[in-house]
Amino acid sequence: MDKLTYLSNADSGYIDALYQTYKENPNSVDASWQRFFEGFDFGQTSGGETIPEQTPEHTIKEIKVLNMIHGYRDRGHLFTETNPVRERRKYFPGKELETFGLSEADMDTVFNAGVEIGLGPAKLRDIRQFIEDTYCRSIGAEFRYIRHPEKIKFLQDRMEADRNIPNFPIETKKRILKKLNEAVIFESFLGTKFLGQKRFSLEGGESLIPALDSVIQKGSSLGIEEFVIGMAHRGRLNVLSNIMGKPYKTIFSEFEGKMYEADPETQFGGDVKYHLGFSSDITSQENKNIHLSLAPNPSHLETVDGVAEGMVRSKIDMKYGGDSSKIAPILIHGDAAVAAQGIVYETIQMSKLDGYKTGGTIHIVINNQVGFTTNYKDARSSTYCTDIAKVTLSPVFHVNGDDVEALVYAINLAVEYRQKYKTDVFIDLLGYRRYGHNEADEPKFTQPSLYKLIEKHPNTLAIYVDKLIKQGSIDVEYAKTLEKDFRSTLQDRLEAAKTVEEISDERPMFAGAWKGLRPARQSDIGKPVLTKITKTLFLELAKEMNTLPKDKKFFRKITKVYEDRLKMIETDKYDWAMGELMAYATLLNEDYRVRISGQDVQRGTFSHRHAVVTLEDSDETYTPLAKLKGGDKFNIYNSLLSEYAVLAFEYGYASVNPNSLTIWEAQFGDFANGGQIVFDQYISSGETKWKRSNGLVMLLPHGMEGQGPEHSSCRIERYLELSANDNIIVANCTTPANFFHILRRQLHRDFRKPLVVATPKSLLRHPKAVSSLTDFTQKSFQEILDDTNVTARSVKRVVLCSGKIYYDLLEKQEADKRKDIALVRIEQLFPIAYDQLEALRKKYAKAEFVWVQEENENMGAWPFYCRKLSGSSLNLRVIARPESGSPATGYMKRHLAQQAEIVNKAFQI
């Protein structure tokens, strides 16, 4: 029970005593009580009403009226007029006077509690009307759960000052009408001209368009220079045309089935029109330049959330010097998706974290009250689809989509709040879906009662036109002319579209931050890239990076790690961590950005990296790479325990900054399956579908060490299954230097490709898995590493292998002094180095070739290589673990026996 409820039932003597204390010294009581008591002069109100003497009974009722005011602020959103097509669910207790211990008999009594809402002493009738108008009309506001008094007061004051929605100037009303007219007529035009074609129309939620327009205009006036929008398919064509400025002719050409200009070498396959992205530059009403980006998105609805956030964060870091007030993300959700898709929660949990925050996101929910065919009561357990907002204490405005001015007001307030407090804010736009999920569906099959109401319901444009005519803001002729002129424009663009043979790309990829880069050609893939550095620079950076400051106290084990790294310089044996960290150090030295995120990446899951170290006697951290030249561009963040959202975020980050080495590392390689949608829909296919290159690096720890099914395989077979047309790079490096070179190669080519690396676990400290200085300073990345321990004429069998098993085979080769077995490592699994394989076939002309892997036969690289090399001169057969539905055994003895059997078979001729 809160204080006010308690006091309303308490002995009035307490309140009398509090009032006496207030009279003696106003500052001696709480500020809320000061406001309550400050009008107690028992005289007359400004309206001439006499304030009754404060008897104990009346004082108690004052508290009850105050309780009512707070009750409306807390729960008024449950009793709003926000549903345009049906009655709201009933909630108890309600907002009847009796709920607050009041009655009709009190309606004309003057209460000083009116001071709380700025009315001064006022009749209960007027007080109640005030809070009804504020909290129970077209906008329902949820914000009282925010644990920040200043934020609550800001929203409360604004809501109560503008309780009847501010009377917009006529110019604003006409702009709202213009955008609403475009939204409604555009959908109507598509529906009649392209009958039966899927468009996932916005009909029933068209007020989104004037709302988005207002976000952009208001945001620009508050200093926002750029917006990045992420949304699913519903209403996307309307947003593309009427907000982003994508030419109507282009959209109509897509409906006509015209194809984009394609270069056969780039393997552009395209996508359906309501998945495509776009970007444009527009000018605001205040003559300010604004850049808009709409991220491409697949049918996996909310997948784009993390991508859009990553794009924004990348631009904050790269373009705006850390100032998040210059750019804002807008995420447009569906009601069913925002309530049920887990990535929404994952993304929202990132919003205040140092590695991922973007200064607050404007969330807009197109609330159709149905998901495909699922009723809202079956789509969630929460009261509202937006209850996820409470996780980050973000305010929510539920708005009737038919009251477009209320929506514009609420969304303007949302933008102000975002800019002021740098946190998320939600707009729940309550509308309906006039047709089925797509235009071929029959919604009456599943929602007959609802669709009887929708059939009779006028569209939002008709409602707003009628309102403006009644106000005298416009006349009938103005509205008719607006509609006629826009339909004529659309018809002209449609006629022009019919003459188009191929669609030109209005959103070139290789511009802006991508200027100077280009699409990859097939001939580029195998070309060597200069990634070596000078001996002087290597040694200089190695020493500087591993010399800890003397004035800071580190754990002895940490000090030893860095001392051991310095000793590597003397012994000329550099381990995996040194190879990796040197790649970062040299790229930073060349003025590239390096960003790494993932669970436990600062130390590394296997305690190998120690890129950030903590002092022994405090929580202060020290980052050696940040102290080097270019170190201000080094960022490494331990992520929240998410794969899906974080991987999407990093993809988005890399998509707008190709000059950043952007890395996501899975805690264990198999954990990447939590982000499989991002691999499938963006990483492997984004270039083919959307002509969008990306250079994201994914490090997936992999290797059979007897640690059971869940910590053995990164499922290499899955990434190879996605590999085609040189779309991604899949590697399994076995030396620190090769890993060093492949990381550097990502930024030293004039094109970008995603890179998946099966990184080691036990090899991190394997005495043989080391590289010398010359490997870093005189070589480049080697797709295939031949055996230097044998002579070709003596070899009877060539073992092709990849990854950790090489060292098990090497141990056997050296122990048995076998010169008749050549161990050849495939370091880059895809794209396949066919020329090098052919050269090996010629070199070892008399030898048989076998593929040896530690993974099960139905996993690892074998299924892919078996298919790709079928019928080749290599005539491969496989030695592997037996087929299995599980990646590895959970029993160490069985693991060791299986591993020994594979190794022994490899050497049995």
TrEMBL record:
Residues 574-766 form the Transketolase-like pyrimidine-binding domain. InterPro entries: 2-oxogl_dehyd_N (IPR032106), 2oxoglutarate_DH_E1 (IPR011603), DH_E1 (IPR001017), KGD_C_sf (IPR042179), ODO-1/KGD_C (IPR031717), THDP-binding (IPR029061), Transketolase-like_Pyr-bd (IPR005475). It holds the Pfam family OxoGdeHyase_C. Its EC number is 1.2.4.2. Keywords: Oxidoreductase, Thiamine pyrophosphate. GO terms for molecular function: oxoglutarate dehydrogenase (succinyl-transferring) activity. It comes from the Bacteria. Its cofactor is thiamine diphosphate. The keyword Oxidoreductase applies. Signal peptide: none annotated. Belongs to the alpha-ketoglutarate dehydrogenase family. E1 component of the 2-oxoglutarate dehydrogenase (OGDH) complex which catalyzes the decarboxylation of 2-oxoglutarate, the first step in the conversion of 2-oxoglutarate to succinyl-CoA and CO(2). This is oxoglutarate dehydrogenase (succinyl-transferring). The lineage of its organism: Bacteria, Pseudomonadati, Bacteroidota, Sphingobacteriia, Sphingobacteriales.
